[in-house]
Specification:
By secondary structure, the protein is an all-alpha fold. It has three helices and no strands. Helix 2 (52-83) runs antiparallel to helix 3.
Length: 124
């Protein structure tokens, strides 16, 4: 018999548990699962409100909503790499580069709103 690696065994157990839970949830007490019991709605970031500057504001707000948490996660990941590097210079360098790139990305996101406001005042 072929031996499974720990990763494959873990994913096999998780997939089996999800399948078992899904099969039993609709068969409990002979009742069907209610329709629309869980609904995910994604707001359209390009909702047209009449002018091009409103569309640009909507796009920037959407990018900020996504980008700021991603930058935060990148800082956490870089901190994790730094703490677990064990003094290895390559891992420390990778963690520093990750922090620098996350800071640059966050700065670009934040400055984008100011740049758009500056262009609006110059044009208007």
């Amino acid at each position: 018999m072929k031996k499974l690696s720990a990763r494959k065994a873990f994913f096999t157990v998780v997939a089996s548990a999800i399948t078992a839970l899904g099969a039993t949830s609709s068969a409990v007490a002979g009742t069907a699962a209610p329709q629309n019991s869980f609904k995910v709605t994604i707001k359209n970031p390009l909702a047209f409100n009449g002018t091009i500057d409103q569309i640009i504001d909507n796009i920037l707000n959407f990018l900020l909503t996504i980008g700021v948490p991603i930058a935060g996660l990148m800082f956490v990941w870089a901190g994790f790499l730094l703490l677990t590097s064990g003094g290895q210079e390559k891992t420390v360098a990778t963690a520093k580069k990750t922090m620098i790139y996350a800071a640059i990305g966050l700065a670009v996101l934040i400055l984008s709103k100011g740049l758009v406001a500056l262009v609006k005042t110059i044009i208007a």
